[in-house]
Amino acid sequence: MNTLFKQTLTASVLSTMIAATAFAAPAEAPPAFVKKVADGLISRLKTDHAKLQNNPEAVKSIVRQNLDPYIDSQSFTRIVMGTYATNQYSTAAQRAQFERNFRETLIENYGSAFAKFSNQSYSLRPYKATNSKNPVVTLDFTNKGEKIPVSFQLVDKGSQWKIRNINVSGIDLGLQFRNQFAATVKRNGGSLDKAIANFKPDADAAVNNK
Q: What PANTHER family does its record include (predicted)?
């Protein structure tokens, strides 16, 4: 293969990769993405409200279908595991198991919260594009006259945004869950395997722990 041909081929491959990367950026603005996710979930909850009473599995199914696909569980896992997410403290298999368990318990947490949903509405706060890597979009949910701010921290996954962390009423859930996980490790005598098997993030406790 002559040098000119190799240079031409290399330039062609590089330009294709750069073009693919450019076109892989999320097409939606962060507020539009969060609004789409919120509207889709709330619409299902309102439509199926009568069916959801005393039916936690139905609620979890709706959360799994309408919220779970937009959660970046890998990023959330790293936040919650903290230093335990590094090779020094855990194996790839342990981190994968934690992610599976954590994803399922998150669905249970959100399912319990949304089971109480009736006619809550929300408003989208003006968006300030201050962090292009991890933009934050805040919604104010109104429940029985009380406003509850919920901020979604996003991450660019190439073709779409995903949610990497959530802040409720000023409480960083990722950091609160990290504290809960560290306490679980301690209760299990430092055994990471036991802590992973027994860890149940508690969103209510996290939000009320002010």
A: INTERMEMBRANE PHOSPHOLIPID TRANSPORT SYSTEM BINDING PROTEIN MLAC
